[in-house]
What does this fold into?
Amino acid sequence: MSSTPFQAPTDWEPIYAASPKSYTFGDEPSQLARTALHFFETFDGDPHTACALDLGCGEGRDTAFLAAACLQVTARDVAPTGLVKLTALLERDGTPVGRVDAALGDVREFAYPHDAYDLALAANVYQFLTPEEGPVHISRLKQSTKPGGICAVGVFSPAMLAWGALVGDRYLATADDLAAFFTREAGWLLLDRTEYWTYRRQEDTMASFAYVVARRLPSPSVPLPVG
It folds into this structure.
């Protein structure tokens, strides 16, 4: 166990603002975003006609990745500096800023429009909700995913506690816990189930994450009447 236990931040703005020219988690997309886009394209999704949600987009690395792949992206985060850095990424990479609808917004207040997104992503945001709130928001994210679309969720794993992490009363889940939201009986095809530990140099400690990627099965066609 590290001598410096990880403590989950309660306010990301000062963290992002402390280094205006650098990115707290780097500027490369998360593995969750890469996997979600991979499976979207595997099932013949067309990025040029698709829309995505990046909920809790942070400094924008996943939003920029999806927008560069030609998806229209709705991005929401509570930290103003994160959105500034997102715009800088788009401009650096020559991605049209108009391809992204970025705005300040708390995940607890997001409307979750039904059947709205071809790819719905919540990467490491629900872990900052309470154990009661987390499952509610995962269910809402599922409802926002179009039939045939991809839903991707990542959170802290309970293994964080083994490393002495100070995560308080937060929503933690194993990969199996997350997979239970996306059963075939509920109309989902589970595509990826991953749980891993990784060293975080900035806190000199280990962190543990779980994520799942699933496809909402297309609605069955209604048979035409005979005669």
User: Anything to note?
Assistant: The longest strand covers residues 188-200. The longest helix spans residues 80-93. Confidence is low (pLDDT under 50) at residues 221-227. The radius of gyration is 18 Å.
